[in-house]
Design brief:
Elements: E1 33-35, E2 38-41, H1 70-82, H2 87-97, H3 101-107, H4 117-134, H5 173-188, H6 192-220, H7 228-258, H8 263-289, H9 293-324
Antiparallel strand pairs: 1-2
The chain binds zinc ion.
Residues 44, 46-47, 49, 56, 58-59, 61 line the site of zinc ion.
Length: 328
């Protein structure tokens, strides 16, 4: 593997491929113009500027915009996963080993060296929700700091007489009937569909949860004033760490169920991973917002409470949404 296998995504501005040298001699409008002994001029497909290098200097679009074949796509994914110095792994290592570092670098303008915050968050959250939804021991609590009660989907309404249930005390018979039908449906398939709907709704509710928690943190760190977007970047990174810890917690739990040999390791590692969340948050807040230790610890506590309350609210909304989606 040579450095060029894994060329930096954004080339230094001085790097001009030799194939383009002398290209301006053959400058004409429209598509490629072949000039004897001179490399063809290539125009940006987005803005028609002359391309020099792998990105358009005018609009920033990649020079190479051909649609990937399935083979190229698989190759690209495998390359990203297997090259230890790829941007994905560098970003993940930075995320896991240096709390707050990714946010700090992003805010300082050093952006090309790691994955953009939102893409990183999306990749990890997709894996997280996939694993949680197929896991035997899925522990939705890892989203929060706190050891709340199991979510309601874990306890189907077994033994409850749905017909006697009411949410409006008879003032809205339609609501009551719908509620009773929902209850009966949940009993009928042992909450399986409800659980599926719940896990489908959770990733969407995160797009409300993260902006809200970022806003609350903005209140905590009122001075010196930070932009709201900076808060969002911080929480995309923080939540990406939480989800990756959650992935390990769920996987360890499943492994321990199938192989009793790893149960001991799992029993030690899972609580450690759980405790890594508040510790990580303290370190990340301290690195990015640069308060002293006492203030950082106090704000972490306040943030944990907000995280917990918002987390419970988010899960509740997801459960209600899941129940409404039952089509009863
Ligand atoms: Zn362009």
């Amino acid at each position: 593997m040579t450095p060029t296998d894994n060329a930096p995504i954004v080339p230094p501005p001085t790097e001009i491929p030799e194939t383009i040298s002398g290209a301006s001699a053959g400058r004409e409008t429209g598509g490629e113009v072949a000039v004897p002994n001179v490399a063809p001029v290539v125009l940006c497909k987005n803005c028609n500027a002359i391309l020099v290098g792998r990105y358009c200097a005018n609009c920033g679009q990649r020079a190479d915009v051909h649609i990937l074949s399935t083979r190229e796509l698989v190759h690209e994914v495998l390359e990203g996963l297997t090259h230890s110095d790829s941007r994905l792994w560098r970003t993940l290592l930075s995320l896991w080993l240096r709390p707050g570092r990714l946010t700090e670098e992003f805010l300082a303008g050093r952006r090309a060296i790691s994955l953009p915050p939102f893409r990183l968050y999306l990749i990890i959250s997709v894996v997280f929700f996939l694993i949680v939804s197929v896991s035997q021991t899925s522990d939705v609590q890892v989203i929060q700091f706190s050891l709340s009660d199991k979510p309601a989907v874990k306890t189907p309404l077994s033994g409850v007489n749905c017909d006697s249930m009411t949410i409006s005390n008879g003032t809205h018979p339609d609501w009551d009937r719908r509620f009773q039908r929902t209850c009966a449906e949940i009993q009928r398939d042992n909450a399986r569909t409800l659980k599926q709907n719940f896990f489908a709704a959770l990733p969407k509710t995160m797009f409300v949860f993260l902006p809200l928690i970022a806003f609350l943190n903005m209140l905590l760190y009122w001075r010196p004033r930070r932009r709201y977007a900076e808060q969002l970047v911080f929480f995309l990174h923080l939540q990406a760490f939480f989800f990756s810890a959650g992935i390990l917690i769920v996987l360890l739990g499943d492994l321990a169920q199938h192989w009793p040999q790893v149960a001991g390791v799992s029993r030690i590692l899972r609580p450690l991973l759980g405790w890594s969340l508040p510790v990580y948050t303290v370190l990340a807040l301290r690195r990015v917002f640069r308060d002293g230790w006492p203030a950082t610890l106090l704000k972490t506590f306040a943030l944990s409470v907000a995280y917990f309350i918002l987390g419970v609210l988010t899960e509740s909304v997801a459960i209600v949404y899941a129940a409404l989606e039952l089509h009863v």
